[in-house]
Amino acid sequence: MIEIYPRILSEEVPMFVVTGANSNTGRAVAMSLLERGAPVRVIGRSTERLRPFADRGAEAIVAEPFDRIALEKAFAGAKAVYAMLQPGVIPESDDFSAYQREVIEAIASALVKARTSHVVALSGWGANYDKVGVPLEGLAILENRLESIGTLNTLALRPGWFMENATALIHEIAASGSASGQLRGDLALPMIATADIGAVAADALITADFRGFSARELEGPEPLSLTEAARLAGEIAGKPDSVYRQISPEDALARLLSSGFSTTMADAIVRMTDDVNAGRIRMMQPREARIITTTRFQSFASAVLNTERTEENHGR
Ligand SMILES: NC(=O)c1ccc[n+]([C@@H]2O[C@H](COP(=O)([O-])OP(=O)(O)OC[C@H]3O[C@@H](n4cnc5c(N)ncnc54)[C@H](OP(=O)(O)O)[C@@H]3O)[C@@H](O)[C@H]2O)c1
């Protein structure tokens, strides 16, 4: 952990800017910075949803992710910026690629105009596959765009599979002892908790010791399959015989369409999942070159189920 107070008090106060502050990762970055006493400016789309940060002393800026003027103002004077493509998916979108390109251009233009020197960008393991489609193609486009800015120092973080993706699975296991999805049950996924991504990003923002462009893969302490994840979640939930079942791409598509996804977005998610199942999307850097974080799936699943129980006790 980095000690920051002495530097803040002795030098000009550095400001750290966090885009997507209400996303899983953005929230984790902002909270991690605030816990270390760093001055933080958070950007999100609603004052109400930014209140938890403002209550802890952050400056809150309400802006759409594609609003380049608002971003430029928000980035002004920043020591370093956390930049991300928010959200991961817009279910009803018919042209998510166009949306992501607009957000990327807004971020890039604002970084240039605000003369930002350091950016920690959220990319992902999807950027490892050069033929990746929507929604992950935006990650490589973001990386390339940031790399093209000569004056900018960029650290692109390429985390693997977010444990948060398993939240629904954990709830299903707790409720019924079974869960299903299109991902193969036997595939070891490079799982990582977004809280850990937040801590790594906060460290990098504060030290800002990277030069030029670099990309680092991030993953948790051990890869885990969904069959194993279901078993572990079942043990925690008191359903030790819990199982995960893989469903066909056709059934996955039907599920997505019936839950409100547009045809193009549902098709894209099914293709992306096929890419993961076939190993086309995978971690590429040698494990010793990756940043390995500490949260295990068991702790993550326990926290998900404890939060649910607490909310039930409070009459959610
Ligand atoms: N899931 C994975 O396994 C994985 C792995 C590697 C990389 N990634 C990358 O991680 C990024 C997603 O990160 P994340 O999970 O932290 O984000 P996220 O949780 O998907 O972001 C959700 C936030 O986006 C905002 N939002 C919701 N709908 C929106 C809309 N229609 N337009 C604009 N903003 C909207 C909301 O915040 P407001 O309050 O501001 O509205 C919401 O809280 C993606 O770029 C993804 O490719 C994901």
TrEMBL record:
Listed SUPFAM superfamilies: NAD(P)-binding Rossmann-fold domains
Positions of the NAD(P)-binding domain: 20-205
InterPro entries (alphabetical): Ergot_Alk_Oxidoreductase (IPR051604), NAD(P)-bd_dom (IPR016040), NAD(P)-bd_dom_sf (IPR036291)
Pfam family membership, one: NAD_binding_10
Segments crossing the lipid bilayer: none
Domain of life: Bacteria
PANTHER family hit by this protein: PRESTALK A DIFFERENTIATION PROTEIN A, PTHR43162
Official protein name in the record: NAD(P)H-binding protein
Provenance organism: Cupriavidus cauae
